Amino acid sequence: MTGTNDVSSWVRSWSASPQAAHDGLGSFDDHPPLADVTLRQVVRISGGGRRVRVRFTNEFGTAPFAIGAAQVGLAVPGGGVRPGSERVLTFSGAPDVTVPAGAPILSDPVDLPLPGLAKLAISLYLPGRVETCTCHDPALETGWTIPGNAVAAPALPENAEVLPVRALISGVDLLADAPAKAIVVVGDSRTDGAGSTPDTNHSWPELLAARLAKQGGVATGYVSNQGISGNRMLNDGIGAAALARFDRDVLATPGLGYVVLSVGGNDIGISFAPRDDGLMADFLKRFPGAPVTADDVIAGYRQLVARAHERGVKVYATTIAPFEGTEIYTPEGESARQTVNEWIRTGGAFDAVLDFDAVWRDPGRPSRIREGFHAGDHLHGSDAGYQALADSIDLSLFS
């Protein structure tokens, strides 16, 4: 607990939106069950602080699971932990805890000074079987499973195996040394970082955090990425709809100060995608719900803005970048994208607009992403493309 004259505050420094194990991209489908195993996962925080706590999650679990031991420390390349930085995590003072089905749980805070952009190793031992893993798919940062209780292992054992998802963790909070505000980005695969080089922290929210860290100052260097690959605003599919998860993933964020809405592209793309027996048929089955219109997407934005403004939070929106050249592209979908983007730019609903469409579009063919900015699929960003998005953002919006 902090004193009455203490200006420090808890703020979210890293996040990954929880999903059901079967509700991602399939990365965990063939993975062995988690039982009598240690998970070691590395996360790069955004802003720093002097105390840390971890949010573990069983929110999509069908049964309780036990954490037998947990530890954090500064990560070193290859899955190790810097000597002297290890901290044992407890839960209401106990070294172990049972996480109820459908619930998250916070660890007790531990003293561990962390600079901004530090890499934190989170290790947890699962003595029993986890019946249903609450995951975030994909991880884009290598994690590992290790047989038995290896939470205190200083280096990664030879029998460690790669963990392809974020498993059972959803947030890291830091106690900042001064009042701080978290920036939460809610979006889809383009926010999640799909197409970027794994283990390089090249999603655009992470690159924004790096720019803020370089600028210096405590107050706004905290960027929380709540993107889900395949996510939509209005309907569930891959992950709960943004409208459904907004309270949990955004409004409940410690230290929330700014929201960036970067969702809606999949609502348009999926709704207007060709409906035939081609390669996309099975993929489209993962997206239930009636097709939506541009007006439906705009109404969804208005709802999210109203809910955030009710909390006194500033709301920014990104325009929807092009996707011609993909299998979901149609002229009708392009028309809807242009309609929504025009409203985002001129409708006056947002406190500011980040014009990602203008950054990515090909000047000679504005319905396509310019070459070099996509990952070869005409949909997701390359490292250079995501860097261009981050570089286009006016940092004074977060001051």
UniProtKB/TrEMBL annotation:
Which Pfam families is this protein grouped with? Lipase_GDSL_2
Task: Kindly provide the name given to this protein in its UniProt entry.
Answer: Lysophospholipase L1-like esterase
The record's section on CDD domains has: XynE_like
What high-level taxonomic lineage is stated for the organism? Answer: Bacteria, Bacillati, Actinomycetota, Actinomycetes, Streptosporangiales
SUPFAM superfamilies, alphabetically? SGNH hydrolase (SSF52266)
Which chain regions cross the lipid bilayer? none
Tell me where in this chain the SGNH hydrolase-type esterase domain is found. Answer: 185-388
- This protein's source sits in the domain of life called Bacteria
